[in-house]
Design brief:
400 residues; twelve-stranded parallel sheet; globular; alpha/beta; 36% helix; 3 domains
Length: 400
């Protein structure tokens, strides 16, 4: 077995994952198979301190040699306190971002701290190999941050999903606790407009290179903070989903501040009936984005309209774009919504001289909710209605 080529051995281990028992069996094959098996088993760990905190700490204490293999760690807390925070019943407290909240009681908060401390004791060695940290379904407080931050000094990618804090400052402190972060993914977060406690000063905001913001985030305070503290100057990749004029105004300000530094943009509209009206009201356009290399437009996100989608925003945004280095445009769209997109207008716009560097226009066609998909018929329709780009060989397709 030791004479087997290493690339074949590695492919075997990688292809049996996520069959954990099979990967464990591979680790026992011979000494040469062990490192890659460990790398596969321990690369990504999802940890609930309530259920696995002690076991996780015992593993690292008894087998410190596995620590370097842990590259991605998700901490998802499901305590009684968190279940109360997830309750949608509003009891006198109104969130500015999403739904309602019941305040965490002190005994439950203390229990949460104990759970985290059991998994991440202060005397434990930091997990220096962890470069991606996911904080999910847990409150963001000063105590939580002070427990977690020392254990992850080299985090480059931070994901916040389903977390809540008493103030927006709490989230800024969370980001400031990981100064080496260059990719920030905000999936879902809520906060109250209350003064945070336990902080003496504002930490330095990491200089982000990639930002992903979902429609569940009130992006306005984040953008204001980034612009006030010059934290957007290095941003070259942005992914956002716009659901309101306020959201559009904030993203527009960010695009103007970043200017030609931005190279990759993903943008779409969700849960709104009239995206075109939002563009007009917010004066939102892509004219500052002259440095774009790739553009991804999301036309398959949920909208409030039940009778027809409004996709004129795609044509409007592209008509005002002048990108000398743009190489690729990807349009994500449902098969049933192709009729709502003015393909002839797109063909005229994208055939203009200012799009001379454009190499590919890809239609990423998603199946309808019914599961039915017309695949080849969709491609024929697009090629027929976008004859100029089809003749150039620029059109591409990705069917799901």
């Amino acid at each position: 077995m030791q004479r087997m080529p290493s690339e074949i051995r590695d492919l075997i281990v990688e292809n049996v994952y996520p069959d954990v028992p099979a990967v464990k069996a591979c680790s026992l094959t011979c000494r040469a198979w062990l490192p890659n098996a460990r790398r596969t088993l321990f690369h990504s760990i999802s940890l609930d301190p309530k259920s696995h905190g002690h076991a996780f700490r015992r593993l690292l204490a008894s087998s410190p040699h596995v620590t370097p293999y842990i590259r991605e760690l998700e901490i998802r807390v499901r305590t009684a306190a968190q279940l109360r925070w997830d309750n949608d019943t509003i009891q006198g407290v109104s969130w500015p971002t999403l739904q309602g909240l019941q305040r965490i009681r002190e005994p439950e908060s203390a229990t949460l701290m104990a759970l985290l401390q059991s998994a991440f004791p202060s005397n434990a060695s930091p997990l220096k190999s962890v470069t991606s940290l996911i904080v999910a379904a847990m409150p963001i407080t000063y105590a939580v941050i002070t427990i977690l931050a020392p254990h992850f000094p080299n985090v480059r990618t931070l994901t916040v999903d389903g977390c809540k804090g008493l103030s927006f400052t709490d989230f800024i402190k969370l980001l400031g606790a990981f100064p080496r972060v260059h990719t920030l993914r905000l999936v879902a977060a809520q906060w109250l407009h209350q003064k945070s406690v336990g902080f003496d000063s504002i930490l330095t905001f990491p200089r982000l290179r990639r930002l992903e913001v979902s429609r569940k985030i009130d992006v306005a305070p984040l953008v204001t903070w980034m612009l006030d503290h010059s934290a957007a100057s290095d941003l070259n990749s942005l992914s956002c989903s716009i659901s309101s004029p306020k959201h559009a105004v904030a993203i527009g300000l960010l695009l103007h501040a970043v200017g030609d530094t931005l190279q990759h943009l993903e943008v779409g509209f969700a849960e709104t009936q009239h995206p075109t009206d939002i563009l007009v009201d917010a004066r939102f356009d892509l004219t500052p984005c002259t440095g774009l290399r790739s553009l991804r437009m999301l036309c398959a996100e949920p909208q409030l309209s039940s009778y027809q989608p409004s996709l004129s925003w795609v044509v409007i945004l592209l008509s005002k774009l002048d990108p000398p280095w743009l190489k690729e445009i990807v349009i994500v769209i449902r098969s049933s919504n192709l009729w709502a997109l003015n393909l002839e207008a797109l063909d005229v716009i994208l055939s203009h001289a200012r799009f001379a560097s454009l190499e590919r226009v890809v239609f990423d066609i998603e199946a309808d909710t019914s599961g039915e998909q017309q695949g080849p018929e969709d491609r024929k329709q697009i090629c027929r209605r976008m004859s100029e780009l089809h003749a150039k060989g620029t059109l591409g397709f990705d069917d799901h």
